[in-house]
Amino acid sequence: MTVETGQKAPQFELTASNGEKVKLSDYRGKNVVLYFYPKDMTPGCTTEACDFRDQHENFDKLDAVILGVSPDPVEKHEKFVEKHGLPFLLLVDEDHKTAEEYGVWKLKKNFGKEYMGIERSTFIIDKKGNLAKEWRKVRVKGHVEEALKYIEENLS
Q1: Strand partners, 90
Q2: Average of pLDDT values for 137-144?
């Protein structure tokens, strides 16, 4: 399954890095930046998370919540949040069900080896719960600023 802009975003309930259950519907009335990333503590994922951290206040001013999603367990998320001072929640998608619903669980290749994993992607969900914008196969450099600019120009 894959989502389309303008449609309702797929609902989910996942455990967060603070140990609590989080549902997308908890954030109705706010813009949501839902970003999927492959793995905690890796260079690209760390850069992306720190870029979101550094722009967190600017997203907050636009009534936007940042949620990161990866297949890593809570314990790994906790360490990642603590090490980098992340002011937003990371969600656990160990069975990759949510990643599949958003169409980001893909066959990947690295050094000739094929495996299933998350394709770095970001989804902007508007205050009504509709998918407003998506970026797939995200390149980290400049991406967070692009997402912020989209919300400023289209959803604030």
Answers
A1: 68
A2: 95
Q: Is residue 25 in a domain?
A: yes
Given the residues 45, 69, 131, 148, select the one marked as catalytic: 45
Q: How confident is the model at residue 144 (pLDDT cuts 50, 70, 90)?
A: very high
Provide the pLDDT for residue 4. 83
> What is the rounded end-to-end Cα distance, in angstroms, of the chain?
29
Question: Is 45 designated active site?
Answer: yes
CB 76 within 8 A of CB 40: yes
Q: Which domain holds residue 58?
A: 13-151
Q: DSSP letter for 24, please.
A: G
Supply the pLDDT for residue 2.
65
In a domain, 5, yes or no: no
45-95 pLDDT, tens digit each:
999 999 999 999 999 999 999 999 999 999 999 999 999 999 999 999 999
In a domain, 4, yes or no: no
Q: What is the CATH number of the domain that holds 33?
A: 3.40.30.10
